[in-house]
Amino acid sequence: MTRRPLVAGNWKMNGLAASRAELEMLKDRAPRNGVEVLLCPPATLIAGFAAEAAGSAVQIGGQDCHAAASGAHTGDLSAEMLADAGAVAVILGHSERRADHGEGEAVVRAKIEAAWRAGLTAILCIGETEAERDGGRTLDVVTGQLSASLPEGATSERLVIAYEPVWAIGTGRTPTLAEIAEVHDRLREALGGPLGAAAGETRILYGGSVKPGNAAEIFALENVDGGLVGGASLKAEDLLRIVEAAAP
Ligand code: PEP
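That is the input. Now the predicted structure with phosphoenolpyruvate docked in place:
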């Protein structure tokens, strides 16, 4: 089963108008090597970046959305607004949203439904805390998050899973290759329930301290289909090396 690798950069709350220089370098140098490249800047930059990247190998995504299409939700953005600004995908359920905004599975599920309603691909982030890993609960936690937050109607085109161990995000620490493989293999199996045969076509990204130096060995694992990259996505040069490492 061939799955097109995806490298998604999550800029989090980083990036000003001047950061457009990074997008320009990324778009000018992104290799057409069979890897899909998605950049998720802060909301203030989405429309400008989408216009700048139009026609290039780089696509633009959001980092969160509200579940409603519109309404009295000061400060929030709907999936429809992201799509209108030129986004093609949105990261949902990131552990920083779960921790900073108390988002639980029901909220994440409603946001995925909103993303699909607006025609966006939902990148669903799941992952265990360090205490959960130490307690031997990693597989139960991630499969539990998956089943509780995945709405009916998932397809391999509009769903991407990102396995992101919370303790590996922004820390420079990563699980061993065997530990990553164990989780991704289990997630592939678990996707068979809701997706049937399409589970084999659904991308499962690894996220958590992916860098140019470790990307190739992680992406070489059978059920790893690319990465969700935070810190190392801020410099186009580093992200480009990670995109190269993801080539099929
Ligand atoms: C992330 O925030 O999704 C992430 C994986 O961050 P980092 O690459 O910095 O660990």
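The chain has a mean pLDDT of 97.
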